[in-house]
Amino acid sequence: MKRFTASGFAIMALLCPGHAPAQDLVSLGSVGVWEILVDPTIGNGCLINAAFEDGSDVRIGFDPEQGNGYLMAMNEGWGEIEDDATYPIQFDVDGTTYEGEATGIHLDGLPGVDISFDSPDFLMDVASRHTLTLSSTAGEVMSIDLTDTHAALEAAVACQQNQ
Fold first, then answer.
1. What is the annotated signal peptide range for this record (predicted)?
2. CA distance 48 to 64
3. pLDDT, tens digit (0-9, with 9 covering 90-100), for 144-156
4. Residues near 124 by beta carbon (within 8 Å), at least 6 away in sequence
5. Helix, strand, or coil here: 8?
6. β-bridge partners, 30
């Protein structure tokens, strides 16, 4: 089991209010289900965003101001999420698990969590695997298909290099 670094989570706790709502993001196109976007509120950080069948909306992006990445997951069914509260979280990427803490947020009216990461291993696992499952102490809360994620993250990296 791998652990996210605590310092990254402290940074993201300060940044959560800075993530732009969907209407403030600049679209650069799409790859499969993923839209490639730029977030002008965090130094033109590039990201990918997709909505899934279970109602989850997921963003994976780069924060150039802080030099790390983030994964945000929102779902209307997670109504008990409190803004700025921290939650223990576990990701399973095709059997490789990562643990860390998530910060509660509401974005575009949806409750969710914001998770910072500075692990290139995590990003590569997400890019090259098939399924990402998010669990809390209450059990599994989301499982998404990662089809097209590798190509979408490559587009986001290229986007970031051009900013």
1. 1-22
2. 15
3. 999 999 999 999 9
4. none
5. helix
6. 35
Amino acid (1-letter code) at residue 30: S
* Dihedrals phi, psi of 19, to nearest 5 degrees: -70, 135
pLDDT digits (tens, 9 = 90+) for 74-130: 999 887 899 999 999 999 999 999 998 999 999 888 999 999 988 877 888 899 999
Instruction: Return the CA Rg of the chain.
Output: 14
CA distances to 15, 38, 74, 93, 101 from 78, rounded to whole Å, are 21, 26, 8, 21, 16
DSSP label at 21?
P
Please give the CATH topology (third level) of the domain spanning 2-161: Immunoglobulin-like (2.60.40)
User: Residues with Cβ < 8 Å from 151, sequence gap 6 or more?
Assistant: 31, 32
- Kindly tell me the sign of the dihedral angle through the C-alpha atoms of 123, 73, 99, 40: positive
Domain limits of the chain? Answer: 2-161
CA distance 146 to 149: 5
Q: Which two tokens stand for residue 136?
A: 């809390």
- Tell me if residue 37 falls in helix, strand or coil: strand
